[in-house]
Every structure is written in structure tokens, then in C-alpha cells.
Amino acid sequence: MEVREAIQKYKRYTYEDYCTWGDDERRELIDGVPYAMAAPSWRHQEISGQLNRLIGNYLVGKPCKVLAAPFDVRLIEDAYGDTVVQPDISVICDKSKLDDKGYVGAPDMVIEILSPSTAMLDKLLKFKKYLQSGVREYWIVDPDSNTVAVHILKNGEYVTYAYGSDETIPVYVLEGCVIDLKEVFTY
């Protein structure tokens, strides 16, 4: 098969297509390609719950909000775009970008918790999409090693910091917020 034929057979989906898919299976759409999402493990959910609680408690009475998956984030401010992700945790400070279907644009902060089926997607493809869309802070949490890679957007690039389970992490986009990883990695 020639390259041209292969390209013609490849279907790129849009947000409009995404909205027609049933809710029986969680999916993300990245650059027009759908990715199925497996149900998270109990450990994944425990870590997500702890991070959501800690950040949420800090944000009480403040203008930013923390939202947990499933929650659609359309990274490009085009309702008919071709990228819709469901970060494990999103911190948003611009409520004008919220609509009935999710968030349109780059959240201020995104946290992804690695699982065997999504690790490469989170580390490579989503990393690139979050960088390109302007996510100011991107955490990649590894439950197997109890570590967190924190990527801070500076001058159009991510600067990366690594943290272990006995450390605290200052949240760059939330001045004064510090996360103690002993409270996150409880098992």
C-alpha cells in the first residue's frame, strides 16, 4: 500500500465526533486519534483522591478550582478541535473557559497518575500537548516508585524537578500551596 493510500484510509476524528460516542467507554482524543482509557487501579484512585483533597482544601475560598477525572479538557480553544483529554486532576483559575461540557483551553495545572496502559501516552504525547497548549504546571505521578516529576513552563519549555515520597512539593501555580508526599503515598 502506498503512503497516500494509507493516509486516505486514516480517519481523524473531531470534538464533534467525540460528542457522539457513548459513555460506556472512557476515551481521549489526541490529534484526532482516539485512545481508550482502562479503569484505574485502587492505588491510582487513592493517590488521585489524596491529591484532589489536599489541593481542594488549599483552594477553599480561593478563585481557582480543582477538578478530577472524568472531566473533558479541550486543549485548543476551538469547539471543533481534535484534542480532548481527561487529566486525572486539573486546576483551573479562569472560570470563563468552563462550559457545560468541560473546559476549553489549557488548565493552569494538570496531574496525571501513571498506569501501565497510559504511561507512555502521559510521558510523551500528553507531555507535548500540555506544553504546546500552555499548561503552566504538569505533574507526572509514578505510583510504582512513589515519585513525582514536576514540569514548570518557563520561556516556552518545561523545566523538570523530581520529588520522592518523603519530600514536599511547592505548587508553582498556587502560591503558598505545598503538598507533602507522605500524605499522598499512604500505602
Structural domains: how many:
1
CATH topology name: tt1808, chain A
Biggest pleated sheet:
6 strands, mixed
Q: Mind telling me the C-alpha Rg? A: 17 Å
CATH class: Alpha Beta
Name the CATH superfamily classification. Answer: tt1808, chain A
**What amount of the residues lies in strands?**
25-35%
Indicate the percent of residues in helices: 25-40%
Task: Describe the overall structure.
- It is built from 5 helices and 14 strands.
- By secondary structure, it is of the alpha+beta class.
- It has a single domain (3-184), classed as tt1808, chain A (Alpha-Beta Complex).
- The strands form 4 sheets. It has a 6-stranded mixed beta sheet with strand order 3-6-9-10-11-12, sandwiched between helices.
- Strand 11 and strand 12 form a beta hairpin.
- The N and C termini lie far apart (51 Å).
- Residues 3-8 have low confidence and may be disordered.
Summarize the structure.
The protein is 26% helix and 31% strand.
Features:
26% helix; disordered N terminus; 14 strands; 5 helices; tt1808, chain A; six-stranded mixed sheet; alpha+beta; 187 residues; four-stranded mixed sheet
Set out the fold topology.
Blueprint: H1 3-9, H2 15-18, E1 27-30, E2 33-36, H3 42-59, E3 65-68, E4 73-74, E5 84-85, E6 89-92, E7 98-99, E8 102-104, E9 109-113, H4 119-133, E10 137-142, E11 147-154, E12 157-164, E13 168-170, E14 178-180, H5 181-184
Parallel strand pairs: 4-8, 9-10
Antiparallel strand pairs: 1-2, 3-6, 4-5, 6-9, 7-8, 10-11, 11-12, 13-14
